């Protein structure tokens, strides 16, 4: 199970459609763009999947995701176990 965190702070639980790992297409759909991985403070087994071009396209700030990473994060993100990412 993984969690999408939207810019308004709401969350949605999702699972990979097939097997235990998300496909690239699923990750891109979750963040609405090309993906980049960001480490989460104090949680080495988790990763934040973000829109790689979010800052360039001026997506809204994601306050909750920014707190998790200590970095400015924008747009919708996916929090997942590292083992769920190919």
How do the strands and helices of this protein lay out in sequence?
Blueprint: E1 2-5, E2 11-14, H1 24-31, E3 35-39, E4 46-51, H2 63-69, E5 77-81
Antiparallel strand pairs: 1-2, 1-5, 3-4, 4-5
Would you summarize the structure shown here?
By secondary structure, this protein is α+β, with helices and mostly antiparallel strands. It is built from 2 helices and 5 strands. It has helices at residues 24-31, 63-69, and strands at 2-5, 11-14, 35-39, 46-51, 77-81.
Molecular structure report:
This protein has 86 residues and is of the alpha+beta class. The protein has one domain (2-84). The chain is built from two helices and five strands. A five-stranded antiparallel β-sheet has the order 2-1-5-4-3. The longest helix has 8 residues, at 24-31. The chain is globular. The model has no long low-confidence stretch (mean pLDDT 96).
Descriptive terms for the model:
five-stranded antiparallel β-sheet; 86 residues; 28% strand; alpha+beta; single chain
Shape: globular
Count all strands and give the number.
Answer: 5
Please tally the helical runs, counting DSSP H or I stretches of 4 or more residues. 2
Structural class: alpha+beta
Which strand order do you get reading across the main beta sheet? 2-1-5-4-3
Taking the alpha carbons of the first and last residues, their distance comes to 15 Å
Helix/strand order: EEHEEHE
Query: What portion of the residues fall into strands of 2 or more residues?
Result: 25-35%
Number of domains: 1
Give unreliable regions as ranges.
none
Q: The biggest beta sheet, please?
A: 5 strands, antiparallel
Would you tell me the overall average pLDDT? 96
Helix percentage range: 10-25%
Global Rg: 12 Å
């Amino acid at each position: 199970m993984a969690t999408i965190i939207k810019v308004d702070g709401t969350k949605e639980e999702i699972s990979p459609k097939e097997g235990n790992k998300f496909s690239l297409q699923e990750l891109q759909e979750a963040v609405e763009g090309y993906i980049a991985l960001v480490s989460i403070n104090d949680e080495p087994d988790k990763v934040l999947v973000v829109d790689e071009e979010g800052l360039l396209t001026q997506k809204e700030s994601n306050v909750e995701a920014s707190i998790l990473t200590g970095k400015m994060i924008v747009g919708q993100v996916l929090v997942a176990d590292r083992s769920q990412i190919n």
